[in-house]
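Minutes, project check-in

Agenda point 3 was the complex the collaborators sent over. CS summarized: two entities, 594 residues total, and the question is how they sit relative to each other. Sequences were read into the notes so everyone works from the same version.
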Amino acid sequence: MAAPLKKVVDNDRLVDDDREGQRFRVSRTAFVSKEILALERANIFDKVWLYLGHESELAKPGDFLTRSVGGRTLLFTRDNKSKFHALMNTCPHRGARVCRERSGNAKSFQCFYHGWVFGLDGALRDMPGKESYPPGFAERSTSSLQPAPKFDSYRSFCFVSFNPNVESLPEYLGNAREYMDIVADQSEAGMTVVGGTQEYSIRANWKLLAENSYDGYHAATNHATYLEYLKGTTGGLVPIQLTGSGRDLGKGHGVVEYRAPWGRPVAQWIPAWGDDGKKRVEAIYDNLMSRHGKERADRIALYNRNLHVFPNLVINDIMALTVRTFYPSEPDFMTVNAWALAPVQEDPGDRSARLFNFLEFLGPGGFATPDDIEALEQCQDGYSNLAEVGWNDISKGLTKETPSFDDEAQMRGYWTEWNRRIYGA
Amino acid sequence: MSMTATATLQTITRADVEDFLFAEADLIDAWKLPEWLELFTDDAHYFVPSTDVDPEARPNDNLFYIADDRFRLGERVKRLMKRTAHVEFPHSKVRHIVGNIRILERDGDDLKISTSFIAHRTKNAVTDVYFGTGLYRLVVRDGRLAIREKRSILASDGLRQQGRVSFIL
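CS then shared the predicted structure for the full assembly.
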């Protein structure tokens, strides 16, 4: 593997950023090569902060969940003092996955193979035949469930890193924090993940989903049926044009921020929600006003944001609020997890409207996401012509001072960082 | 359908229900979705819950894959019959097997039905399998069965591999 890997990096330019020639292209090799995927694992997924989950998913002491992150299997717990732990879900003894349940509440975890028992903090509590081990064995740091090398949270969004020397989480998130704040500030009671996870997969390269998640350019054609549905729904729209800007946030993060005609639970009313809905939306807006002032309240309420946190976290604050993360098992296959985020103690009518809105567009059964999935898979299929047609074009808006939400500045920022990390520059 | 136009909730047999659900599956498999839609009552719902929630979970406070009221179900059908529903253009090839059909109870005006389903879907030479439990609430309308609620509960771990639930389960 070493030789072809070197060849890919040395001989092929994967990102062609030619500002003089007003051209920005990405080699389609980046989407199909196993060597590139190995480099992505080593230089990206093993090096940066990766999204693990939201604190609200572990609401009570003793709550736990298991989750695959960055190719690892993790056990995420909340101990009796409400401290959160991200543990590597493998028995230090022989390696078996210690917790095999998806989620629950526990006092301890027992490995089913030889019976070692671990606390919610990962410490080894007990094991059969203890007397056959040397004194102090259980207290050795290597005897406990190993913590993820780094674990931290920002505004209740929890991240891990497998790189002990990674920069701090706030530093890593950089300018993306501004947009995560806008999400976290939507409710003074805090935000919560709603029950139910959309778990799916796409037969395409993972970077296609990163691009797609904040691609404002594809809506009119790829999502024509969704827009027709809104137009055909009595009161489904307000007369607002799709307008806004795209922003490269640096460090590979990017965002598009824009007005749109659909209803936003926080807080853009549409006639379909009726007078009761109008009162509720007004109350939400007034609360935002009193806490944040008009300018920020308007930004939170009336603007949509598709945020991408490098390398694989999407927080889309659109007709509903979704958190999505994805990971490649092969160059042409990724798994995707998506959640709905909502204010804690949301009015039941608002919650219901929010989730109805969510499913209208989002997810593998929505009126839009399936067409995204189809597009990504058709792109991947198209890359079989790689030898003859080798490049993706990402130059839309390249010469603009203020790129539009439907330009590609945010993607150029992503690819620039991706390139820097792959080449180790 | 063997049922007469004078059927009532009390006279419906399992064979009647089987005939009805087999006919439903045929309409889906033939992409005769406007005709399929006519099987539903005006207050009908169609649900595909996410696979980590309780089978009885409600879509008001749980994230599903699909939670359509009758209006949106009609819009889903309209969408799926368009060339611009890209995920289903050209239409995938689908076959449903519906089995283990049981009448669970007669609950007021509703007949509660449980099935096991397997659906195969092929598109672009990739075949996926969808399997799970179908829960129906059927009613008798104008002497014929109609669907008031269809809840297709996937037994798989999410939609890993399949990636979408773009046709009707």
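Noted in discussion: Chain A has two domains: 50-161, 175-422.
Follow-up: revisit at the next meeting once the mutant set is ready.
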